[in-house]
UniProtKB/TrEMBL annotation:
InterPro entries: Aldolase_TIM, FAD/NAD-bd_sf, FAD/NAD-binding_dom, NADH:flavin_oxidoreductase, OxRdtase_FMN_N. This is 2,4-dienoyl-CoA reductase. The lineage of its organism: Bacteria, Pseudomonadati, Pseudomonadota, Betaproteobacteria, Burkholderiales. It comes from Comamonas brasiliensis. Residues 378-629 form the FAD/NAD(P)-binding domain. Keywords: Flavoprotein, FMN, Iron, Iron-sulfur, Metal-binding, Oxidoreductase.
Amino acid sequence: MYPHLFQPITIGHITLKNRILMGSMHTGLEDQAQGFEKLALFYTERAREGLQLIVTGGFGVNEYALGMPEHAEFSTLCTPEQAARHRLITDAVHAEGCHILMQVLHVGRYDHGSGGVSPSSVLSKLSSRSSRELSAAQIEQIIADYVRCACLAREAGYDGVEVMGGEGYLINQFLAPLTNFRTDEWGGDAAGRSRFALRIVQGIRAAVPENFVISFRLSLMDLVEHGSHWKEVLDLARQLEAAGVDLFNTSVGWHEARIPTIAMMVPRAAFSWAAEQLKHAVSVPVAASNRINTPEVADDLIAQGHADMVAMARPFLADPAFVRKAQAGQNSAINTCIACNQSCLDRIFTRQQVSCLVNPRACREWEWPQEKAAAARKIAVLGAGPSGLACAREAADRGHKVTLFEPGIRIGGQFFLAQKVPGKQELGETLRYFEHEIQRLGIELRLNTTPDIDTLSGFDHVVVATGVTPRRSGIEGENSSKVVDYIEALRSPRFVGERVAIVGAGPLGFDMAELLTHHKADDGSVAAFDREWGIDPERELRGGIKASERADSPRQIWLLQRSKAAMGSGLPTTTGWIRRARLKNKSARMFNDVEYIHIDDNGLHLRIRGEQRCLSVDHIVVCAGQESHDPWSPRLLVHGIAHTVIGGARNAHKIDAARAIEEGAELGRKL
Ligand code: SF4
């Protein structure tokens, strides 16, 4: 299967059996005292499954490079003593026949604490303090730090390094006029702004043997105003190749860019066309990245000549065995990364350890061994939503005999409905994976079935995963025919009128607004995405951006919340801003500090920041949260049947798929 993906490729002096690179991810384990053992296990599980090349998360080139002095002991590489620790990782990965590069990183002004350093003093959108301008002597010292770090990586047994030159970190800050106003030799024209990157690569190449790989993470489009121009990117790439780069691992967008690059609503492989143009300009291999999550997409873009390799990071959190399954053609067995960011990137931004929504075992391999249960038991799971599915899968995988009862006609519960929201189609991949696992593990799935208590008394343990029901609004007149709950609206959006008030602006309210403002012109294509977000496919403008187009909406929407908090402030960090921007672009009206008065034939009467008015709407969609639905526990208790309640049925407060799946899987592994 996938002949292009599984063709050998040579990078520098190493030859790989396939063209898949596990891209750099900071997992949070890098910052911990025992993190190297845990990282070794994390990487080894993936290497064992056929990966040929891994890039570690970024390690700081000096004590201040990551802006986390409290973690510098573990997350930087500045001394031989620190290098010795990395042997745990490199030896373990090499034992599986896989190669590994260490990413060398300086975050520059992306230092959330002190504001960091950069070529010029500039405030970043991600920091509250301006950065400090580097002196010429400090620049020379940092270049020396990069070289020392690369040499230590070699001592530690790595096959090479990846120089992080993209995503708005320090090297990128030198390259772009946005952050480099210097007039000395390190700034000014493109040659001056490129000098820092070139000197780093030249310095490393001079200090390491020829067979030590240098990969350069190159920003193809910064997606910020006053970013690099495409011609400058190409010139830089040619010079870097001459300086000794063996591989270009490409990236798109700075972290502060206001254009999504890896979220679920970004079309798959949306930026691979940009990698193709670089491929024609250099002779070393080019890897494409961003929203490549299936073997079909990966193989196709190599077949079409967009790139020589694919770099995927999050798909290896979701499924350590991606490579093996792809090579065997077992596509439906792959637990696909759905690009939700909920348990990976969102956690990085809140300084928590990373995991994965669809695979909560990720980065916890050390505490979550895959062992069979001491004795097989009969387990009944009530409810085939995310928590029930995860529990059934995990329990069956451990050897238990599992029966999954679902009163509905299909698996998925509200997760199934949520995939109707534009940009959330990837959720279907998770349900496809669970369907595969139900078959593979011999789980008895009984749809359309509510068991009686006698049936349940025949099981050793019953898991109640019956989920949630919509909470009522409590507004006077809520029984009006104008009022619908979010389940009804998700099922049949075509029956919702043209003027709609949405009560509740949490994740459900935003989903609903997205669904109801969706216009058929947004067909999910890369062209439509580029138009909506102002990406310049011709790359004639700096940063690859131009003015975005206002999107049409078939409905007029009022999105309302009682709380005085900023609209969408409860949404996840890495995707909340995207959802707010999309709705703004569709002229949705968003109001906080709302007091609902009543509903009548005229519409919704309310006070917005004290001012009374009536929204004359066709429908009021209630997205006021959810309540636990557990009709079973009292009866199970009375009959003395051992049981556990999980997910939304246990606690509906802020329930989401991440918690539901994690709770289900956690219970499954303990049964
Ligand atoms: Fe992918 Fe979501 Fe898992 Fe992150 S949490 S790896 S985005 S599925």
